[in-house]
């Protein structure tokens, strides 16, 4: 390899990695798989090691570094990091405006509204575009130097985008995503470590780890909200600063708006109030400030807080409701988790109908009983929880809740074991190895066959662990609020998952039969059965003679179908599925469609068809739609702004169809 080739390869690898890292960490839209990304990183690291003269020690893949510190050193801020006065009602915002107008004697100014992230404020200083230091807010004058740790945060650029000279100080918030908190707590539960209480404490605690590797493990994020100093550029408004922050390569919080009047501010507050619970980040309000920076000078600072800005705080939402039932769910490991069911009530923007009571200790502590009126809230705006029982409202004749003596799923015995989280709590476990509740595999098969691709095996496990599902039928009664905030379930993916599950309620009969996982009944046999019996009912009540008479179906299949359709477990499951609105539709014999026997993958946005419509056409024409490109793919249908699937198709030499090609064919 020639020198120039190596240099070029290193540079293009860096560009490629940076692009993917930005897509993943900043835009939250990964463009390649983790494994593919890791391969690129490995190649670059190998080259860097071999040719250290070209290596860049500041490049993102080397972010984790530095030995653990003994203690954080204190560092003074270049200018004071102010805190904001709070307003808890819109009247207070109105009073604030009156004071401003009085002071500046003018009404000609605008407001800038932005989401207030709930984390740890931090100042970043860049010299000629390169990160020099990161310091916590501390007392506003002096903070702790957390540079090594902040370097592990992927959304903090080590080098600002673009060319820069002189000093730039950026301020923002270090936060932990709700989904990260849940994921970490899941690990910590298994490892028996103390759990993180909420995202704000978790972010603060993580960034103050003396060992940067520990910080790196916590997957923190950074949202920039101000440029406190910038030697190369003069800003006139706060909104200009936000534009520059984006250009520098920072993420800024979603929802920001320039408002001409307080009325507009009010509608922004209302709008954000409706949407903020769905975000993956903890937020506690809206920062409202005068957009014109010149007026900041005029208005000045009183004490520790500026007059030109205000933090509007949303009230913490709680609600009361009645406990209608306390059920016991069996998790994948067999652990029994009590679950309170309520009269559905709106809390922090979404309907809450149940909450985990975690364990028997929690139940005893609350003394919660069926019939009780309880105060519920969303912990860290994520998981609904019972805060208190209003005992004065307790009806007569309630009974103390006891854990069942038998597993509610299989009827086998229960065993008490000390909790795995290292606390004193006692866990109750079903001892039956074959307990259906533990049988994740059949569930995964069902979900996959039903083409509910949004629900992968990990999500199935997670939902089981959370006690949200015990079998596939439970999926169809899930609500968005059940998922919001769980691992990998940001609001958007929660919505996608629920939408996809609901859209798969009417599968073709053959797919449905395959999904049941009857021994010896694969796709083809299921298709033969579906074509023979036409309706599910006819199939389900088929006699051995009827089954025997079908071509291609041997005695082994007949026997396993019969033993399945007669089993009480399967009948119970089918009943549950149908009660949840699932109903398979008869399949038509499709022979001779243009996509007969072919597999297609869709990518990008189609202009004349929706994805669903395209899928239906493909199926009508005898084809199958797969979600990812593989050697088995026959065609990739490419719309506008196609993703990595199109590139992958090219690599694998798969025929690419444009929307026009596709329409012509069908
Ligand atoms: Zn059991």
Report on this model:
With about 675 residues, this protein is α+β, with helices and mostly antiparallel strands. About 35% of the residues lie in helices and about 20% in strands. It has 25 helices and 24 strands. The strands form seven sheets. It has a five-stranded mixed beta sheet with strand order 2-13-10-3-9, with helices on both faces. It has a five-stranded antiparallel beta sheet with strand order 16-15-14-17-18. A four-stranded antiparallel beta sheet has the order 5-4-7-8. Strand 11 and strand 12 form a beta hairpin. Helix 12 crosses helix 13. It binds zinc ion. The site of zinc ion has 9 residues, from loops.
Class from secondary-structure proportions: alpha+beta
Radius of gyration: 29 Å
Q: Estimate the global geometry from the Cα principal axes.
A: globular
| Spatial sequence of strands, sheet with the most strands | 2-13-10-3-9
Low-confidence spans = 419-425
Distinct bound molecules:
zinc ion
| Helical proportion, percent range | 25-40%
Amino- and carboxy-terminal Cα gap:
50 Å
Number of helices: 25
Largest sheet: 5 strands, mixed
Strand count? 24
Q: What is the mean pLDDT?
A: 83
Strand % is 15-25%
Keywords:
alpha+beta; binds zinc ion; 5-stranded antiparallel sheet; 5-stranded mixed sheet; 666 residues; 37% helix
């Amino acid at each position: 390899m020639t020198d120039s080739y190596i240099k070029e390869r290193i540079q293009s690898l860096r560009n490629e990695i940076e692009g993917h890292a930005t897509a993943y960490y900043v835009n939250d839209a990964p463009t390649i798989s983790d494994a593919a990304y890791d391969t690129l990183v490995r190649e670059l690291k190998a080259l860097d090691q071999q040719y250290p003269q070209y290596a860049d020690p500041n490049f993102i893949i080397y972010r984790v570094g530095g030995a653990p510190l003994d203690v954080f050193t204190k560092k003074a801020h270049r200018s004071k990091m102010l805190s904001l006065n709070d307003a808890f009602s819109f009247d207070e915002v109105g009073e604030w405006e009156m004071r401003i107008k009085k002071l500046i004697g003018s009404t000609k100014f605008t407001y800038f509204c932005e989401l207030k992230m709930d984390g740890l404020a931090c100042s970043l200083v860049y010299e000629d575009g390169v990160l020099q230091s990161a310091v916590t807010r501390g007392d506003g004058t002096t903070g702790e130097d957390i540079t090594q740790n902040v370097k592990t945060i992927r959304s903090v650029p080590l080098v600002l985008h673009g060319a820069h000279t002189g000093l730039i100080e950026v301020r923002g918030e270090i936060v932990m995503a709700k989904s990260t908190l849940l994921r970490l707590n899941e690990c910590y539960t298994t490892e028996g470590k103390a759990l993180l209480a909420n995202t704000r404490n978790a972010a603060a605690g993580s960034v103050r780890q003396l060992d940067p590797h520990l910080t790196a493990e916590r997957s923190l994020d950074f949202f920039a909200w101000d440029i406190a100093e910038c030697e190369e550029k003069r800003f006139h408004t706060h909104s200009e600063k936000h534009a520059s922050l984006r250009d520098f390569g920072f993420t800024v919080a979603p929802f920001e708006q320039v408002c001409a009047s307080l009325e507009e501010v009010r509608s922004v507050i209302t709008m954000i109030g409706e949407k903020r619970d769905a975000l993956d980040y903890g937020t506690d309000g809206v920062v409202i400030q005068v957009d014109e920076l010149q007026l900041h000078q005029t208005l000045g600072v009183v004490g520790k807080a500026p007059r030109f800005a205000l933090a509007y705080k949303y009230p913490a939402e709680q609600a009361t409701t009645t406990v209608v039932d306390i059920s016991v769910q069996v998790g994948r490991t067999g652990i029994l988790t009590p679950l309170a069911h309520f009269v559905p009530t709106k809390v922090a923007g979404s309907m809450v109908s149940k909450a985990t009571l975690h364990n028997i200790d929690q139940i005893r502590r609350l003394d919660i009983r069926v019939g009780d009126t309880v105060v519920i809230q969303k912990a860290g705006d994520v998981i609904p929880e019972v805060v208190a029982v209003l005992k004065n409202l307790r009806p007569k004749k309630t009974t103390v809740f006891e854990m069942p003596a038998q597993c509610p799923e299989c009827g086998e015995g229960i065993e008490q074991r000390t909790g795995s989280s290292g606390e004193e709590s006692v866990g109750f476990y079903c001892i039956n190895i074959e307990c259906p509740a533990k049988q994740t595999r059949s569930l995964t098969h069902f979900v996959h066959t039903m083409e509910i691709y949004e629900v992968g095996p990990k999500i199935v496990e997670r939902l089981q662990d959370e006690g949200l599902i015990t079998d596939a039928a439970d999926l169809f009664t899930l609500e968005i609020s059940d998922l919001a905030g769980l691992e990998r379930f940001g609001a958007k993916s929660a919505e996608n998952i629920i939408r996809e599950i609901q859209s798969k309620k009417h599968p073709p009969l053959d797919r449905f039969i395959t999904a049941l996982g009857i021994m010896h009944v694969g796709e083809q046999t299921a298709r033969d059965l579906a074509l023979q019996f036409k309706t599910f009912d006819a199939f389900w009540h088929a006699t051995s003679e009827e089954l025997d008479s079908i071509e291609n179906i041997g005695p082994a299949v007949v026997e396993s179908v019969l033993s399945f359709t007669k089993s009480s477990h399967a009948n119970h499951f089918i009943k549950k599925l149908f009660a949840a609105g699932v109903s398979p539709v008869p399949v038509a014999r499709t022979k001779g469609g243009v996509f007969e026997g072919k597999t297609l993958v869709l990518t990008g946005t189609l202009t004349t068809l929706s994805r669903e419509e395209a899928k239906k056409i493909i199926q009508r024409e005898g084809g199958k739609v797969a979600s990812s490109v593989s050697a088995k793919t026959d065609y990739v249908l490419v719309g506008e702004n196609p993703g990595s699937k199109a590139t992958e198709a090219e690599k694998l030499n798969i025929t690419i169809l444009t929307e026009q090609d596709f329409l012509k064919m069908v």
